[in-house]
Amino acid sequence: MRHSSVWGGAVLALLAISCIHQLGTGLVVALVPMRLAIEGFAAWVAGAMSTAFSVGFLLGCLAAPKIVARVPARAAIAVCALANAACAAALWLYPDPIAWCAARFTGGAFIACMWVVIEAWFGQRSNAANRGAVFGAYMLTSRVAFVIAQAALAWTDPRIGALFLIAAGFYAVSWLPVLAARDAPPRIHPKAAPGSLAIVHLAPAAAAGSLIHGLITTAQPALFPIYGVGLGLGMDRIALGLAAIQFGGMVLQLPLAFASDRWGRRKIMAVAAFATAALSFAAFYAPVSSSPLLLVALSAWGGAPAVIYSLAIAHANDRVDDHQRIAASSGLLMLWGLGAALGPMAASVLMDSLGHAALFAFTGGLAVVLGAFLIWRRIVRKPVTARKPLEGAIAPPG
Question: Are residues 211 and 169 in the same domain?
Answer without folding.
Answer: no
